[in-house]
Amino acid sequence: MKRASTLRLLSDLSDFTNASLLRKVLAEESLVRVRSTPDGRHLLLLRPPGSPAPLLLVSRKGAGLGLEPSCLAGQGPVLDAFFLQCPGWASGPRPVLALVWASGRAEVWGTGVHPGWQLLQQAELCVSSKAKVVAIAALGNRLVWCEERPASTEVAEGSVQAAFSHCVCTRALEPHGETSAILGAPKTLLHHCPHFQLLASRSDFFMVPTANTWPSVAHILLIWYPGKGRVTVAVPAHNLTHSRNLSPKDRDSWDFRSLLQRVPGLLSGGEPLDIHTCAAAQGSLLLLSPKGAVSLIRRDGGARAVGFLGYGLLSQGVPVSLGIFSNTLACVLGSGLELLDMGSGRLLERKVLSTDRVHLLGLSAPGIDEEEENKGGLRLLSASGLFCIGWEMGREVEWLNSEDLVFEEACGYYQRRSLLGARLTTDELKKGSTFRAPLALAAVLRGHQPPTKLLSDLQAELRDYHGLERLKTRLVAGDGQEEGWTELAEREVERLLRSDLTGDKLSQLNAVFSVFPAAAWCSTRRALQLQLDEAGQLKSRAPPDLWKKVLVDTGADGALPPFELLCQCLCRLEPCWLPPFVELAQQQGGPGWGLGAGGPGPPLYRRALAVLGDWAGARAGALELELLLGSGRPKAVLQAVGQLVQAGQWERVLDAGLALSPTSSLLQMEIFTVLLAEFARHRQLDAHLTCLRRLCPPDLTPTDLLLLLKRHLPDEEEPPTPFPKVGADPPLTVGLLRGLLEQARSGAQAPSPYEDILWDSGACPSHPKDRHYPSVGHSSPR
């Protein structure tokens, strides 16, 4: 599809009253402000405050009289002027003009049965005579202004109290009789607020900070919805918004400071908004920074980037006007007109105008354009006339789809990074397979989901985000502090575990674990889906990707990796969970799995032992033994067995050997050899011969068994005696060896030379006959 922009002349201004003066002001005054009625039949030109001579010119299209400057002689420069709409007139809508001075004086002018403009009302907007109006906006029949109220004599100029001495007030135009109208009673919306600039957009009012706004709140803007009676507090830099009822519990207004106290995170980490130009357009707000970045603030407070303008023109101080039509951003920079696509920020067209004094009047109102092709376009006003800009179908400009925009952006990106002199084209990106990122993104855009399907997929995420915002609000309000902070920490850990745990996110995870260890562990346990099975073993149903994030060694800049962080937390809270957790981690990633940035890292049990000594306290020794036994590494297991043997914990050594025997026959042989050596030296294992017999390797023969025993039998320094010395262990006997030899014989394939020792006939030998020996002192008969 191809299209090009067109600029159509709607009027050469000859059909407006005071046409010559109107052209002269538009040609000579570059900073003049322009207002128009919704039907486009009345134009208002106003010099800004501080001009050498005040000027107010109202021109009407067709028959009638304009409002001459002589009507306002001697009253000083007008701060601003607006066309209002008065509802309820039986004779139909007629233009009503409101003039406002900085002193708070306001005049309402209207047209009636008599020719020309008549003064309908003179009023004072400010309650105090010392107050002054610093900003004002109008929408429909409503005036909204920001006034600076006098501070007490004790308040110093430039202090915080002086900076928050402003109020935002409103008055509505009401019919008074059949042909007249007056401003109704004033209402205060916000007390103790900073200096705000006011802009009206379709049905809402935007309150934008200025250069005079206190720096700590200069990053915040407010949006007031008169029809709903609500206000939204927005921080565009962080895309944070919060909406509240402006008049809860029959209150007439809000205090600005208490309003911010009810919204979490607004006063921290915010840089003042850097605004060069701002304009309201189609219910949204356009912000232009001095560097040329254009942002869009929606009526719900959400913010997004739109595009970039030429920085050189902004630095020269040329006037700038912004507007939106047909999803296109129109920017008038001096004598240039730039059209950018609102979706991609791509420059669609650049036009050079005949003058640098051009004003945007907004979208064409119903009734001003009789031709269908002019509807939906922006109106441009200059000394040459009133024009309408819009799109028409043509052959000059090609309208690119989202896939083409992806390849164009990728082409420029790779070209900047390339060291080759050859020019990269979009066709090379589409056909080649070297650059996969633009191909993947184009494929996603080609098959993107409709908004309804995408919204349903994101419903759970949006619900969690909304619940998190409600929780933050409750915390700031002081409701359920302890439970609220715990829940907030749990949600933050869940969010971090779903992201890539590197850099700042890893540091933030460390901070949450240090402040809220119990909540962080509960959240991690829930995320890893840890639970005990029927056998009492720790199991997990979490996906492998999550376990990989937990186990990979990515610690840097003093931040512990996730695995060490969890081990440290378990040592503090639930030490009994540490050994089974490390064993489960080894099962999820393999024994000793743990990869760092530079390749394979240390085994998981060693990483757990590294953080054990600082947090386990008196239980460090017991936990170290359990980690070594559960590591699955032969050296670590034998190290633990050696410690248990030195401590004389025979039952635990045997239990560990029997548990590890099915996994490794070599490890079973090593443990049996260690215990057999102890069995040969002393008699402390005699009570555990049954378990020692079960630990005997099946391929061990009686010969091998006796040779092992002979190697570890103590040396006999004295001749053997039938009975042991007092306090010494009895010697090893064949009777004690009988069970081990039978176990070795049962597993041996060949007959053993010690078969006679093991043979058992089942009957005892006969007892010898009694013999009589002579007693001592009697001689035998001769």
UniProtKB/TrEMBL annotation:
It comes from the Eukaryota. Residues 404-768 form the BLOC-2 complex member HPS6 C-terminal domain. Residues 1-388 form the BLOC-2 complex member HPS6 N-terminal domain. InterPro entries: BLOC-2_complex_Hps6_subunit, HPS6_C, HPS6_N. One of its GO terms (cellular component) is BLOC-2 complex. Residues 759-782 are annotated as: Disordered. One of its GO terms (biological process) is protein localization to membrane. This is Hermansky-Pudlak syndrome 6 protein. Signal peptide: none annotated.
